[in-house]
Amino acid sequence: MRRHLIALAAALLLALAGCSNASLEADQEPVSPPTITTDHADFLAAHDLDGMDGKQIIDHLDRVPVADRPTDLMASVRADQLLLTDGEQEIAVPLGEDGFYLSVAPYVDQTHECYYHSLTTCRGELANQDISVRIIDETGEVLVDEQVTTFDNGFVGFWLPRDVAGTIEVTHGGLTGQSAFSASNEGATCLTTLKLEA
């Protein structure tokens, strides 16, 4: 029975993981799967993540080259926690109160729907590309203004203050795009709707 519950919880996590909208609309409250109590330290050590907190795990996994990404681990970024599962065990790693991780995959020709960013499966179109990013909150304060290179998965991630909303503008090769964002508890951690156009 316990194995059945674990498999059910893992399947639910996969259904709600990033790179799938899981039928969630922006105005619906996200639903987290049940957390299965496990020994966090042993789980993290088994996946070469020991000694890392939630933010460090996110920063590490998002930067792993696609060819080296673990195939036995699902990692779904939520507003306040990182959900990790290997199909047998699941843990929720808290992210703290002071930061919200937003992963952005600008695109030119093709994209996919996404709500919660999956650190091990999400793929964007513009991998390893130099882009300019400006993130401005609704009061006009500039939160980010920098040149960055997208990760091997085509995304780039930013730690933003919690409970802010605003606009992200990306420029690449003479193309520009904008999109709104919200770093609220119900906000998406995966932004794949930012189309770059002339």
TrEMBL record:
**Keywords attached to this entry:** Signal
PROSITE patterns (alphabetical): PROKAR_LIPOPROTEIN (PS51257)
Using the record, list the residue span of the signal peptide; answer none if the entry has no such feature: 1-22
What InterPro entries does the record tag this protein with? CueP-like
- Does the keyword Oxidoreductase belong to this entry? no
- The protein in question is named Secreted protein
Question: What is the organism field in this record?
Answer: Mobilicoccus caccae
